[in-house]
TrEMBL record:
One Gene Ontology term, aspect cellular component: nucleus
SUPFAM superfamilies: SET domain
UniProt name for this protein: SET domain-containing protein
Pfam families: SET
Region (Disordered): 204-223
PANTHER family linked to this entry: HISTONE-LYSINE N-METHYLTRANSFERASE SMYD, POTENTIAL PROTEIN LYSINE METHYLTRANSFERASE SET6
PROSITE patterns: SET
Domain SET residue range list: 12-357
InterPro entries reported for this sequence: H3K4_H4K5_MeTrfase, SET_dom, SET_dom_sf
Length: 403
């Protein structure tokens, strides 16, 4: 199965197919023994993927290694690049991080860190100036239109930074973007996506691809670029209701505009509205949380340290009785058939599922699990375990869940 020329996960052991009620899913092509390795996230396109699209939440930036995500019960790592807002568990990790991210990536991190520090001072010392009302913040706008409007502002910000004699309006948009505080975690997450896009644009497989403005004027600016350079992101299920709750559209557009105002100039061409929109909407149903590694069953558990998107690993559906075990070592996820499956083998035709619940959540009862999955992932779990356990519940409990 392909998505615009990008191969979707497939091997001698498994294949991706559509299901009636849970989108696409991975199915066994033959009987597979427990313990069999299914997938690792470095096997294909390695040179195009690094650095992983991810964010370590700001409160944890001194406690989680920026390179391998090591976390040691809240201990702050000593090896740091304070002006870039990152810490490392070892000098080797720091060197690896610097070599992958390069001078431009480092400068971008420094720009974000400087701005966040400056803005937190501004917040303390000045009254919030009345922001210029832009159409972007209106809740009635659909997100296509909102991102298009943000793109119009974005062009002015870029003009203010790159033109020899920018207009007054352009300069005003730049000043406004610079002084509007944005969510530091959105800034870091979007930057990681922009760095991947930038890196891929220079990779041999991608050079010469047309990444210009879309020919279709109704699409979000940058759509062609994100399709060309990030086909694996575009192959993932998107979430049109991403801009709700603690992820409002205005937080994303603010982060987009602030990044345009502060990132090194060579990155600006890769910071397009469509890239930001796709990074937001595809992460919503596909991100893996980054938690301390190595619970008793190998699954991560404990604090929510951050999240990331590993596109090739995003096609496993959830089951409350998973038959595939996932494990993160550093930045790499590996998936293997669980040793705990019932029977000697995972049978041909069976769906391969991981759990989306944390290691410490798997013992919740059926109603709690379903509430959690609905709240965090937005779906009514259709897994076999839920079907069986719901069957055993009194009708009143099921009606209560549906209401
Ligand atoms: C990481 S994606 C998995 C791949 C996805 N099915 C696809 O077509 O790309 C997560 C999404 O798959 C669907 N899904 C996963 N597990 C499910 C389950 N047990 N019951 C219902 N839907 C499920 C939900 O829509 C969820 O948001």
């Amino acid at each position: 199965m392909h998505h615009d020329g990008w191969p979707l996960p497939e091997s001698v052991d498994y294949v991706l197919r559509s299901t009636a009620s849970a989108g696409r899913a991975i199915f066994a092509r033959r009987n597979i023994k427990p313990g069999t390795h299914i997938l690792s996230t470095t096997e294909k396109y390695e040179q195009l993927r690094s650095p992983t699209v991810h964010v370590i939440l700001r409160p944890y930036r001194r406690e989680v290694c920026a390179q391998c995500f090591a976390y040691d019960r809240g201990r702050e790592w000593k090896c740091r690049l304070p002006d870039a807002g990152v810490a490392f568990c070892s000098v080797e990790c720091r060197q690896q991080w610097e070599s992958v991210i390069g001078p431009l990536g480092l400068a971008a991190h420094q720009a974000i860190e400087t701005t966040i520090k400056k803005q937190s001072k501004w917040k303390k010392t000045t009254q919030d100036s009345t922001p210029m009302t832009t159409a972007v913040d209106s809740p009635d706008l659909d997100f296509d239109a909102a991102w298009q409007a943000a793109g119009v502002v974005g062009k002015q910000i870029v003009a203010a930074r790159t033109k020899e004699k920018p207009s007054k309006t352009e300069q005003r948009y730049l000043r406004e973007a610079e002084s509007a505080p944005a969510d530091p975690d959105f800034l870091a997450y979007l930057l990681s996506g922009v760095l991947v896009t930038h890196k891929r644009s220079a990779a041999p497989a991608m050079v010469g691809k047309d990444a210009d403005e879309p020919s279709d004027e109704s699409s979000i600016p940058g759509t062609d670029m994100v399709s060309e350079l990030f086909p694996d992101l575009m192959a993932l299920a998107s979430d049109s209701s991403v801009y709700t709750g603690d992820s409002p559209l205005s937080s994303w557009t603010k982060a987009y505009k602030l990044l345009l105002a502060i990132l090194p100039i060579p990155l600006l061409d890769f910071l397009r509205p469509a890239i930001c929109h796709e990074l937001a909407s595809r992460a919503s149903h596909n991100a893996f949380s980054i938690r301390p590694a190595g619970g008793s069953d190998g699954e991560q558990s404990g604090e929510f340290l951050g999240w990331g998107v590993w596109p090739e690993a995003s096609f496993f559906n959830h089951s409350c009785r998973p038959n595939v075990r996932k494990e993160r070592v550093g930045r790499i996820w590996t998936f293997a058939v669980s040793e705990d499956i019932t029977g000697d083998v995972l049978r041909e035709g069976e769906e391969l599922c991981i759990t989306y619940l944390g290691g410490d959540e798997k013992d919740l009862d059926v109603e709690e699990r379903r509430k959690k999955l609905k709240g965090e992932w937005g779906f009514d779990c259709q897994c076999q375990k839920c079907v069986e356990e719901l069957h055993d519940l009194p009708l009143s409990a099921i009606l209560h869940e549906r209401s």
